[in-house]
Each structure stands twice: as C-alpha cells, then as structure tokens.
Specification:
Layout lengths: L8 H13 L3 H4 L2 H7 E8 L5 E3 H7 L7 E13 L2 E11 L7 E12 L2 E11 L9
Parallel strand pairs: 1-6
Antiparallel strand pairs: 1-2, 3-4, 4-5, 5-6
Helix pairs in contact: 3-4
C-alpha cells in the first residue's frame, strides 16, 4: 500500500473493510448501517455521471437489486490526520445488463468520534481489466 503520509497497516485494512462493507447486501439493505457509515454531508459522483447525496442513498440502496461486485487493487493513503483516501478498481454486473461495467473508484473517509465515515465517493468508468482471483 503506497502512501505519502505513513499509514499503519491495521488502519489501511480497517478502511478497506469499511469500503467493502458498503458493497455487502446486508449493509446496502439497511438504512441504519448506511447512515452509520456515511457522513451527513456525503456526496457521490457515480460512474453513470449522476450525483447523489446521503439522503438519496439512504432511500435508494435498501430497495435496490444488488449488483455483483468484484473489487481489486486497493490502495489507502492518509491525506492528513483523520482523513484518508481509498482507491480501487471495480467490476459491477447487474442482472438485466448484458455487459459488466468497469470503473476506477475513490473514496474519502473522515475519522469522527464515532469512527470512520465516508464523506465522498466517485466511480469513473474505465477500460475492461483482467480480474484477479481473491
């Protein structure tokens, strides 16, 4: 894991775990769990070009049909004390779409007194890449 400001391996793994939690069916189905992981001022620029705020995510995700995700090439770096960036590549396959979508993903996580919360997420479409096995 590359970093400009040194980051402890345990913290990097914790942030990757939190990032991946947002892609799990039980978390996506729970407005309460999403509320805990997303900061009140959360904003997302999706790979489709749409912009979402926290309230939109809390009302949309719990009822959304869960796509299949494959994520790889995680990197975590500290921006400053209490603010970290998680980047990775994602392959997303929805049931009704014939072809998967590929994107580069980036999230900003801020440490609060209640733990880490995501304040920003962006998915940028990218070329197809070879999947690595977990």
């Amino acid at each position: 894991m590359k970093s400009h400001i040194p980051i402890e391996r345990e913290l990097a793994q914790q942030l990757i775990t939190l990032e991946c939690a947002l892609l799990k069916p039980n978390v996506r189905a729970s407005a309460q769990m999403l509320d805990n992981l997303l900061a009140d001022e959360f904003i997302e620029f999706s790979a489709t070009g749409k912009c979402f705020d926290k309230q939109h995510v809390l009302t949309r995700l719990p009822g959304e049909l869960m796509p299949e995700f494959h994520n790889q090439d995680f990197d975590v770096r500290l921006i400053n004390e209490g603010l970290a960036q998680v980047t990775y590549r994602a392959r997303l396959q929805r049931d009704k779409e014939p072809r998967p979508q590929y994107s580069n993903r980036s999230s900003l996580w801020r440490q609060t007194e209640d733990g880490w919360q995501m304040v920003f997420h962006q998915g940028t479409p990218c070329a197809e890449f070879t999947l690595k096995h977990k």
